[in-house]
Predict the 3D structure of the following.
Amino acid sequence: MLFKTLSASVYGIDAHVVQVEVDVGVGGMEDFYVVGLPDNAVKESRQRVKSALKNCGIDFPYGQGVTINLAPADLRKEGSAFDLPMALGLAGCQGQFFGKALDKMMFLGELSLDGSVRPVRGALSAAIAARDHGIKAVAVPESNAKEAAVVEGIEVYALKSLPHAVDLINSPESFQRVKVDAQEMLRESAQYSVDLKDVHGQQAAKRALEVSCAGGHNILFIGPPGAGKTMLAKRIPTILPSMSLEEAIETTRIHSVAGILENATGLVGTRPFRSPHHTISDAGLIGGGAVPRPGEVSLGHNGVLFLDELPEFQRNVLEVMRQPLDDVCPRYDPATCSSGGRFLSWRNLVAKNKALGQLQHINSQTSQNPVCG
């Protein structure tokens, strides 16, 4: 018997709709295959799905062959978000849904062995992809519900467990969809733990920051250790304009894909501040990989990228920043991503200590203040 469900695969910061085709037929006791370029996390879902079905009281087709195809087959699939649609496909093959087709609802979720649903990466991107493909509803883990509900024009349902998902399919009228006020979420999450007004003195440095932020300029701090370079840098986001809803959604997509989004907020309302260590690799800074992942530059989108101890960074790491800094709108467009690409915007702030013997033509009263350039 064949049963189909819908899910999504995140690639870069975009999501692609994936059709999960589950076929149960004649085969050996241990014949359970997952095809369609799955990574190790997807392959290991076989054990999670088996245990989750058994512990939720849903029959697994023991003694029969199971083949799951993730289409399109030429797109690499990664992550654990396919656990839930796979389990639902197997449940559908056992007649759990009374012949209902699941072609208008997308499912995402990692399964625990007891059948509970855990959060996944990229729920916001998946919801956007579902809307763009005309899918009416998305069912996501409860922790991802607020994030996905930001997308307009699509119904979002929060799931706690596998039996909860089965009940949603059989009796959708008994479930309330998740509704959020995106503007209110943005206001609630736009809270900073620091503020530039807390800094006393440093008038020249603060003036330089104001000019840099107003004009969208990069800035260099030079000063001895303890002069306040890092302290001032951390407070730059507090004097930047408040994020618009569009900027917040863009930033949230990147943070969600990277797995650093706080599920409680559902939306990034503060401008990012990224300060990578000087031992970072070029891939860690600019992003990329066989399956593209956001780097520190991408995570600093709409915010600040702070490179402290600039001379300590490896030469090849600084070289990968050359073209992005030369371009007014740096482009995030790995060769394996969509041809449309993405344009990133951030303010680059760098700092370094004074070199031994470096001449600074400043008087003794201001010798401990950072020099801005």
Q: What stands out?
A: The longest helix spans residues 245-258.
